[in-house]
């Protein structure tokens, strides 16, 4: 009996050993098969990779170019065009990284594009600068791959390129078009009703319905035996100056643009309209001292002089000296002129400190003081409130808004023209004010 159990135990042990050896064999066989398959796949992958490498690197089959204007318009969307040329006999996928100027603070610029075999394509994007000055583009980096996408080849095009950002000449052209087309009301510019005329005589013509009956020339009417009227034209060659405050009050930003840049863009657009009207336009800037004095001129090329001068203007942290401005105007601007003064007052007390100098300037010239609404405070003043702290803030904001309106009344009470405007509406409102003055013959 003992021998029987001993033989049984021996048999179980034998079968266990045999099963273990067979399991190891199967495992070894499985690993060997897997290794063989992976080796074959690796060889296939290496061949495909080599083919992809060869196709991309056998020749320079891709070209790209960046088309940028030499001048950018401040606060406007400026187009940048990218041209792509695929000389490969297959479709390629491109990841484009353009090294745009650091002022835009865009470090995640990436465009993906697909170009068919032996074809060209292009796309564009826009950049909106908010500061004048020099902007440098870097390289145009393109990472090209085939449909397989196993290899990417880098191409670099376009060396460093300098672009100068000038005052908003796009806005100037738009407003110029509206003025010439006589459809200003459709674009936000109000129509000015002419309530008088200047005394610059042009001709005598036959009366037609709609002519001012006050201009009937009775002697010519008797001679021709039909109604004749005198025709007048707007007085031309009137001197106009843009005076821009470059003190610290003009550093305040609204919607990414400083008040100074709003004033500069408006000055350029307004100067263009005034030159189209054959008036003489000049400019100067002031803070602690008076600078950038450009005498009034009516030449067509004078606009370029103004543009280059406006390009280099910057603000400081100094307090503006209106006394020095008055002394300079008295000494340098001897002919009665229209002075468009761009500045800003946040409280009526700051206006009253400068009011004596503004009155002195207005005695010799037609002065228009242009200053800005604080749109953020206006939003706060009209915002619905529920908390005590919000009510307090709203009350303060309403007081500041009311002070701005008091400033307009104070200036008008002292015989000074005033224009209170939102920064974004500055150019249109300034041109409207100029057209109103011309229509009324105030200068």
Shape: elongated
Mean pLDDT: 83
Computed over alpha carbons, the radius of gyration is 38 Å
Strand content: 25-35%
**What low-confidence regions span 5 or more consecutive residues with pLDDT below 50?**
4-10, 181-189, 191-198
Helix % is: 40-55%
Biggest sheet, open or closed, and with what strands and sense?
6 strands, mixed
What order do the helices and strands come in, and which of them pair?
Blueprint: H1 2-57, E1 62-67, E2 71-73, E3 78-86, E4 92-98, E5 111-115, E6 119-127, E7 133-137, E8 140-145, E9 153-157, E10 161-166, H2 169-181, E11 201-206, H3 218-224, E12 228-232, E13 239-245, E14 253-254, E15 257-258, H4 259-276, E16 280-286, E17 290-297, H5 302-311, H6 322-332, E18 338-342, H7 348-364, E19 366-372, H8 375-382, H9 388-413, E20 417-421, H10 426-440
Parallel strand pairs: 2-10, 13-16, 13-18, 18-19, 19-20
Antiparallel strand pairs: 1-3, 3-6, 4-5, 4-8, 7-10, 8-9, 11-12, 14-15, 16-17
Helix pairs in contact: 2-4, 4-5, 4-10, 6-7, 8-9
Describe the structure concisely for a colleague:
The chain is 41% helix and 26% strand. It has helices at residues 2-57, 169-181, 218-224, 259-276, 302-311, 322-332, 348-364, 375-382, 388-413, 426-440, and strands at 62-67, 71-73, 78-86, 92-98, 111-115, 119-127, 133-137, 140-145, 153-157, 161-166, 201-206, 228-232, 239-245, 253-254, 257-258, 280-286, 290-297, 338-342, 366-372, 417-421.
Description of the molecule:
The protein has 443 residues and is of the alpha/beta class. The protein has helices at residues 2-57, 169-181, 218-224, 259-276, 302-311, 322-332, 348-364, 375-382, 388-413, 426-440, and strands at 62-67, 71-73, 78-86, 92-98, 111-115, 119-127, 133-137, 140-145, 153-157, 161-166, 201-206, 228-232, 239-245, 253-254, 257-258, 280-286, 290-297, 338-342, 366-372, 417-421. Helix 4 packs antiparallel against helix 5, helix 4 (259-276) runs parallel beside helix 10 (426-440) and helix 8 (375-382) packs across helix 9. The termini are far apart.
């Amino acid at each position: 009996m003992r021998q029987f159990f001993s033989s049984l135990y021996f048999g179980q042990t034998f079968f266990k050993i045999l099963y273990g050896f067979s399991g190891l064999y199967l495992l070894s066989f499985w690993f060997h098969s897997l290794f063989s398959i992976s080796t074959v796949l690796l060889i296939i992958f290496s061949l495909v990779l080599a083919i992809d490498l060869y196709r991309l690197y056998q020749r320079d089959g891709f070209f790209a170019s960046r088309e940028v204007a030499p001048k950018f318009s401040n606060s406007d969307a400026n187009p940048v065009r990218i041209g792509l040329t695929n000389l490969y006999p297959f479709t390629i996928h491109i990841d484009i990284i353009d090294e745009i100027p650091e002022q835009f603070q865009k470090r995640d610029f990436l465009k993906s594009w697909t170009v068919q075999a032996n074809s060209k394509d292009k796309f564009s994007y826009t950049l909106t600068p908010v500061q004048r000055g020099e902007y440098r583009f870097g390289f145009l980096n393109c990472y090209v791959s085939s449909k397989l996408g196993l290899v990417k080849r880098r191409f670099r095009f376009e060396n460093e390129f300098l672009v100068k950002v000038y005052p908003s000449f796009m806005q100037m052209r738009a407003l110029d078009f509206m003025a010439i087309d006589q459809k200003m009301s459709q674009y936000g510019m109000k129509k000015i009703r002419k309530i008088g005329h200047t005394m610059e005589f042009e001709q005598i013509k036959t009366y037609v319905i709609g002519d001012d009956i006050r201009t009937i020339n009775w002697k010519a009417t008797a001679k021709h035996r039909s109604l004749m009227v005198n025709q007048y034209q707007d007085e031309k060659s009137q001197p106009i100056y843009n005076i821009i405050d470059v003190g610290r009050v003009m550093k305040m930003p609204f919607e990414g643009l400083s008040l100074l840049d709003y004033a500069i863009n408006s000055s350029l657009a307004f100067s263009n309209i005034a030159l189209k009207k054959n008036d003489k336009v000049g400019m100067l800037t002031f803070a602690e001292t008076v600078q950038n004095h450009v005498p009034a001129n009516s030449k067509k090329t004078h606009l370029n002089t103004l543009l280059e001068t406006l390009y280099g203007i910057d603000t400081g942290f100094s307090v503006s000296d209106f006394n020095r401005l008055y002394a300079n105007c008295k000494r340098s601007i001897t002919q009665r002129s229209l002075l468009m003064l761009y500045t800003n007052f946040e409280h009526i007390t700051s206006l009253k400190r400068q009011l004596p100098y503004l009155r002195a300037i207005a005695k010799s010239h037609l002065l228009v003081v242009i200053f800005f609404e604080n749109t953020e405070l206006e939003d706060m003043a009209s915002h619905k409130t529920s908390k005590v702290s919000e009510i307090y803030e709203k009350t303060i904001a309403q007081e500041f808004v009311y002070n701005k309106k008091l400033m307009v009344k104070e200036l008008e009470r002292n015989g000074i023209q005033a224009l209170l405007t939102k920064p974004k509406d500055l150019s249109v409102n300034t041109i409207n004010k100029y057209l109103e003055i011309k229509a009324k013959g105030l200068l």
